[in-house]
Design a protein that fits this description.
Layout lengths: L1 E5 L5 H11 L6 E7 L5 H8 L3 E4 L8 H14 L2 E6 L8 H6 L4 E5 L14 H10 L3 E8 L9 E8 L6 H24 L3 E4 L2 E4 L4
Parallel strand pairs: 1-2, 1-4, 2-3, 4-5
Antiparallel strand pairs: 5-6, 6-7, 8-9
Helix pairs in contact: 1-6, 5-6
Bound molecules: 5-O-phosphono-beta-D-ribofuranosylamine.
């Protein structure tokens, strides 16, 4: 299966997915990496691994239509079947969501529906978690719909919040778990084991 990864930043989740592919744990190909940020580490990682890496930003186009068409053309020309957001800071236009129904995944560094939504990204999430006093946070992989951090949940893992955690120390432990579960969640899609029923994602039996 051809996958496209959209990323705005350093790209450690992209790296984790690439490693899973290299280690034979995930039978897929990353055919394209798109970033809205020309300096994204994710673009460098892609290029270093021989993957097409494109800087595509709304600012480069005179209309929303042209912008969306450019992205769709790049996806279609590579037969991309699954889009994986890995620290992508822009909203996915609804036309793209319609073209890829239940085929766009996102990873969020908390247990949704808590600590999600607009503005909840990066260290903001971990700061809010610590300030709230919760003892457990974690990682959520979900399907992307029209609202931020809202679509059906595919997989979650818990991470303990320690009394002496800072947003930085918590972010580091959560990120390790992200790297473990994102390739696992993607594998379920690649192997066709996912069924979406309303807000529920059902993982089909092996048999
Ligand atoms: C991760 O924490 C992810 O959960 C969030 O953005 C961060 C991206 O990190 N959506 P990286 O660019 O994959 O290193």
């Amino acid at each position: 299966m051809n996958i496209a990864v959209f990323a705005s930043g350093r790209g450690s989740n992209l790296m984790a997915i690439l490693n899973a592919i290299k280690e034979g744990k995930l039978n897929a190909k990353i055919s394209l990496v798109i970033s809205n940020n020309s300096n994204a580490g994710a673009l460098e990682i892609a290029r270093a691994n021989g993957i097409d890496a494109l800087h595509i930003s709304r600012k480069q186009f005179s209309s929303d239509e042209e912008y969306v068409q450019k992205i769709l053309n790049e996806l279609k020309s590579r037969n991309v079947e699954l889009i994986v957001l890995a620290g992508y800071m822009k909203k996915i236009p609804s036309e793209i969501i319609k073209e890829y129904p239940n085929k766009i995944l996102n990873i969020h560094p908390a247990l949704l529906p808590a600590f999600g939504g607009q503005g909840m990204y990066g260290l903001n999430v971990h700061k809010a978690v610590i300030e709230s006093g919760v003892k457990i946070t974690g990682v959520t992989v979900h399907i992307v719909d029209e609202e931020y951090d809202h679509g059906p949940i595919v997989m979650q893992r818990a991470v303990e919040v320690r009394d002496d955690d800072t947003p930085e120390t918590l972010a580091e432990r959560v990120l390790k778990v992200e790297h473990e579960i994102y390739p696992q969640a993607i594998k379920l899609f690649v192997e066709g084991k996912i069924k979406v029923s309303g807000r529920k994602v059902i993982i089909k039996d092996e048999n």
